[in-house]
Specification:
With 399 residues, this protein is of the alpha/beta class. It folds into 2 domains: 147 residues, Aspartate Aminotransferase, domain 1; 244 residues, Aspartate Aminotransferase, domain 2 (3-Layer(aba) Sandwich), CATH 3.40.640. The chain is built from 13 helices and 17 strands. Helix 4 packs parallel to helix 10, helix 11 packs parallel to helix 13 and helix 12 crosses helix 13. The radius of gyration is 21 Å and the shape is globular.
Length: 399
């Protein structure tokens, strides 16, 4: 007698926690997931900010099929001219609305984009110090993990990279730590795992000026915020600044694995000599993932998805009023619903899952619910989702 999928999951899949959700999903479309029992769930977190244009977006699926019919992997990144890569690179450069970020290096994930950007910053500046923010998360590999602003995530894996300093997101005084020893500052416009925390335009202007003054590079991590999540294609465009290196992943693939870092030609070229192949990847820029990403980017623009993000965000905020809620904050469709403690949040999450809605909490803000639905969610679907959320809160509040 064979094992069930659930038994195989428990038997052979390496665990990441002692309490996985363990939902057995058999199909997904738009904002909905369906499990093996036929139960449907509203996905209010987009696979953690991945499915910006919805699950199995028809344009993305068709682009994948078309590319599979032509070719899949051919050669390591950077050796062959592959149309999905060059067309996506051109579109990404155009999306920045500047000639400054004019070259793209494709990776398989956001973490790999961080690693590549760190190497690039060290190679270009010939410095070793990095500055990141407390309560920031940039990935789980050893370089990216070194940047993390929470010691609980790092202590079991030391030694990690030296020369890492941390600043408080939005704190102008802390910018004094940026010096001529600093290779780069890596920062999110909106602190994702910190629970959707945003700093002012004044802060980012000062940060940009400080980086320019000291000759260090400004790396802006838009792995969660990119591809329209905050209402502009890139969140940094709301701050009237330019990064030296831009990171993206998650929502850029329409559900396929892909990431990238962008910089100008002068900076990026330093990875190609002394040594040659200073950074290399086998599967980075996989043609099928690039085709899916280009279809995602085009779908966002052609359907004017960005114009509706703010109104949808405002609708969530207007509907989510309840005694159990202490604060609702958000930028576009990246929203945190804060409550008094993790126990309350977890009870609401569990009740929501029972009632057909998937939400989550944040790594460094576990007393807040995460709301980051596909950008294509409709107003009626927002009302339906909020109704489920409020019913769950009623139940937890009464208990």
């Amino acid at each position: 007698m064979g094992f069930t999928h659930r038994q195989l999951f428990q038997k052979h899949m390496a665990p990441t926690s002692d309490a996985p959700l363990a939902l057995e999903i058999v199909s997904a479309q738009h904002i909905y997931l369906t499990d093996c029992h036929g139960k449907t769930y509203i996905d209010l977190i987009s696979g953690i900010a991945v499915s910006n244009v919805g699950h199995r977006n028809p344009k993305v699926v068709q682009a994948i099929k078309n590319q599979v019919d032509q070719y899949m992997h051919l050669m390591v990144y950077g050796e062959y001219i592959q149309s999905p890569q060059v067309l996506l690179a051109e579109a990404l450069v155009k999306s920045t609305l500047t000639n400054h970020l004019n070259q793209v290096y494709f990776t398989n994930s956001g973490t790999e984009a961080v690693e590549g950007a760190m190497k690039l910053a060290k190679r270009y500046t010939k410095r070793t110090e990095f500055i990141s923010c407390y309560n920031a998360y940039h990935g789980a590999t050893q370089g990216a993990l070194s940047l993390a602003g929470d010691e609980n995530f790092k202590n079991s894996f030391r030694p990690l990279l030296p020369d890492i300093q941390h600043i408080n997101h939005g704190n102008l005084h802390d910018l004094s730590l940026i010096t001529t020893k600093t290779a780069a500052v890596i920062i999110e416009i909106v602190g994702g795992e910190a629970g959707v925390k945003q700093a002012s335009k004044t802060y980012f202007t000062a940060l940009r000026e400080k980086c320019t003054q000291t000759g260090c590079l400004l790396i802006i991590d838009e792995i969660q915020t990119g591809f329209g999540r905050t209402g502009t294609f890139w969140a940094y465009q709301q701050m009237d600044i330019q990064p030296d290196i831009l990171l993206t992943a998650k929502g850029m693939g329409g559900g396929m694995p892909i990431g990238a870092f962008l910089a100008n030609e002068t900076v990026m070229r330093t990875l190609s000599y002394e040594p040659v192949l200073g950074h290399i990847t086998t599967f980075g820029g996989h043609p099928v993932s690039c085709a899916a990403s280009l279809a995602t980017l085009n779908y966002i623009h052609e359907n004017d998805i960005l114009s509706g993000v703010r109104a949808k965000s405002d609708l969530f905020k207007a509907l989510l009023v309840h005694p159990i809620i202490q604060e609702v904050r958000g930028v576009g469709l990246m929203i945190a619903v804060e409550m008094k403690d993790f126990k309350t949040v977890k009870a609401v999450i569990d009740t929501c899952i029972e009632n057909g809605l998937i939400t989550d909490w944040f790594l460094f803000c576990d007393n807040a619910l995460r709301i980051a639905p596909p950008l294509v969610i409709t107003e009626d679907e927002i009302k339906m989702a909020c109704n489920i959320l409020l019913q769950a809160m009623d139940k937890v509040f009464k208990n």
